[in-house]
Amino acid sequence: MSDKAPLRHPEKAKKPDQISPRKPAWIRVKAPTSEEAAEVRRLMREKNLHTVCEEAACPNIGECWKHKHATFMILGDTCTRACAFCNVKTGNPKGAIDLAEPENLAESVKAMGLKHVVITSVDRDDLADGGAFQFVACIEKVRAAAPDCSIEVLTPDFRDKGDGPEVIARAKPDVFNHNLETVPRLYPGIRPGARYFESLRLLQRVKDADPTIFTKSGIMVGLGEERAEVLQVMDDMRSAGVDFMTIGQYLQPTLKHAAVVRFVTPEEFDDYRAVARSKGFLMVAATPLTRSSHHADRDFAELRAERLRRMGD
Q1: Across the chain, what does the average pLDDT equal?
Q2: Which regions of the chain does DSSP assign to beta strands (E)?
Q3: Which residues are [4Fe-4S] cluster 2-binding (predicted)?
Q4: What's the pLDDT at 68?
């Protein structure tokens, strides 16, 4: 019997190393060493919960956990997809769905005193509805335990899973996020299990189901996309009614993942932000370290205020 720990990404183990350029100074961050971060980690272990902060090796974990912000990842820690950019463990999920998870998540939200919570999940292609029922249960439990807490969901694409997006929309999260991740040309290599226009359609379906829900989507840059392609994604998002766009630098989790083609400069992010705002988004977050859930609480307050401002114009 081997003493080796199971591989997080067995499908990538035999791939050659992908070498990225050296990180520039503007992309370096500190590890989570604060007392507050240790408290968040302890609570997650105690409640048998997972966070995308840890599982996806988010560069902002130190900052977020210091301020007791965490993005909860439901439906286990094993994803049925194998995207080239993502550090979440891949494989066949073992065991039954944890029916206590929604209650444990809600209790953690209350214990942390969160005013805004982000709930995401692994892809669960093995489930008939892709796990939509668990999102609904979590929303309902959080509403009961912390009624003043706004709720943001960051969902998978529910490809071939029926009306999962509409089911979740009926539970009325405040923000419905689904990331397009990259430009359509790069999907076969970066996000092979997904389809760009199906993901775009999901965002439109949520808007059609409930126009009052804020919709949000994001992409990574530095994977070889062209500026014109990024601008086209902006137009596609706006055509689907997306309110909030995020743009961040792709960072390679391991040498077996897709390499960084280049590090996009802060000035280029400023340009993307200005162009996206001109296209009508209520909010745009575009910096090298921008991630879907980074500053989500602050962003939600600004998002709501901007909608009210435009309604008053």
Answers
A1: 89
A2: 50-51, 71-74, 78-79, 89-90, 116-121, 150-154, 175-177, 214-221, 244-249, 283-286
A3: 79, 83, 86
A4: 59
Could you tell me which residues come within 8 angstroms of residue 200 by beta carbon, excluding any fewer than 6 positions away?
A: 180, 236, 237, 240
CA distance 35 to 41: 10
Tell whether 58 is in a known binding site. Answer: yes
With 90 as the cut, is the pLDDT of residue 176 above it? yes
Architecture of the domain whose range is 30-312: Alpha-Beta Barrel (3.20)
pTM, whole model, 2 decimals? 0.90
**Sequence ranges of the domains in the chain:** 30-312
Q: Is 149 annotated as a binding residue?
A: no
Per the annotation, does 83 bind a ligand? Answer: yes
- The CA distances from residue 78 to 93, 258, 299, in Å, are 5, 19, 29
- 3-class SS of residue 199: helix
Residue that is written with structure tokens 């960051």 in the block? 154
Q: Which of 167, 177, 171 is nearest to 127 (CA)?
A: 167
Mean pLDDT of 183-211: 97
pLDDT above 50 for 1: no
64 is in an annotated binding site: yes
